[in-house]
Design goal:
132 residues
Amino acid sequence: MEDFTRFFERDLYARENGIELVAVGRGEARVKMAIRQEHMNSHGTVHGGAIFTLADTAFALASNSHGIPAAAINAHISYMKAARSGNLYAEAREFAKNPKLATYTVEVTDDAGEKIAIFQGMVYRKTPPPVP
């Protein structure tokens, strides 16, 4: 996880938004965000952009966990439940891959494990993986 800690530390936007790295492995990652006042929208719930940023951070970590630079080419999020306080978690898992493209699903949950959002994203791998 040490290499991914450095990768995450360079993500200034995620860190500025209070996102913490919890775990990362090949094709998966988990991050956490304590809900702060600046995450709130005018309805008194967590802003969709904050939730998207949390999910996108897990997606970036998981998709780059193979040691091959990967860049998002598509991302979509569906919001299922409002969040108001506590912590949010985003867990990304690789869903499908080939040498150049990979798809990930990210579940965003709250402290009770309730689903807040589902995110799906696709990355383009800049260099093909080595042949085993």
